[in-house]
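Justification of computing resources. Each target in the renewal requires a structure prediction run like the one illustrated here; the chain below, 431 residues long, is used simply to show the kind of job we budget for.
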Amino acid sequence: MHDYQASAAWAQARDAADPLRHFRDEFLIPPHEDGSGRAVDSVYFCGNSLGLQPRAVREAVNAELDYWGELGVEGHFKGRLPWMDYHEFLRDDLAAIVGAQPGEVVTMNTLGVNLHLMMVSFYRPTPARSAILIEAGAFPTDRYAVESQIRFHGFDPARDLIEIEPDEPNGTLSLAAIEQVLAEHGARTALVMLPGVQYRNGQAFDLAAITALAHRHGCKVGFDLAHAVGNLPLQLHDSGADFAIWCSYKFLNGGPGAIGGAFVHARHANAVLPRFAGWWGHDKATRFQMGPEFIPTAGADGWQLSNPPILALAPLRVSLEVFRRAGMARLREKSVRLTGYLEWLVHTQLNDLLHVVTPEEPERRGAQLSIRVTDGRERGRALFEYLMQHGIIGDWREPDVIRISPVPLYNRFADCLAFAHAVRRWHDASA
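Resulting structure tokens:
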């Protein structure tokens, strides 16, 4: 049972007692000018779109610039973190966040590129089994990629792109609906490709249950974890998923357009799979022999194409170290309380104005609440713009959703209360 109260004293007391409160000081909070012309911290609820910059990032990037200036090419072999192996310095922390074995994860490319690389290996259509199953309203990256892969293999998306329609009142999707579609189409489905968290409504999916269901029908399974990684505790290895891909600029705080990542299950570590090969995916022990035959490195590293971009990896390495110190279990515990408090405020203080479309069950959501204004899209857009003008930073997703994400690394109970007060002020001013 919770003891939530809509008072500043209650929120401040909970923030003061928060064992993770000091992590907020490790991030740069964008400033906002208050009504008196004074610069104050904005209330930043947009970590689901772009995470904040860890303060230690500047020093980490500058260190690599210094090594470049002082060592030149020798920086690949010298310095505190030699560039030759730099991506490996992120591996253990990343594996811990996604619940994988270290050899199952790799930091490389961007989400869209990694999705295509994974589909080269795991979408192997035949005339009898050519379909890809996604959710209706999938993020454009996913939909464009899977449609283009279907066409590339000579099949027709009108037949072979199966989109599961939502079957729950707020546009969310039950496991029963997925099961029903697979019962009808599983025999002709080559790949099930679903999100860890649906970007628009914030619904979290049961990866293990979906994987088991799809595998029973003979389908390969991949997940887009863009809105799940660093948000929810994941158990990718135990889920049995064949692969997963993600970006790192949202909850992982890797910076705008940050380098992405991929997971390939250990059972595929040494499998002979079709892939688009690149030099850096070649067996590390013989890579520099420059032989003509491609011999992939075992595990996820074997899907690499090129040597890692050091200046892009440094910010993510810093953020992953923050996650290691905070711990996903503690972050999730705080996230459940923060998001629960925000939802409670909407239900008890703003029920006449706002409607939450994200599932109420904590196990079916992460930090994100997707909210609609009850009076429709135009009023919703007006509220969003008011919030932005007054330093409450969320984001807008068409047609009518405001996404508000209290991130446990740097958001507070007081931030949630500030959101509620701002919505009420907007309503009173515009009534």
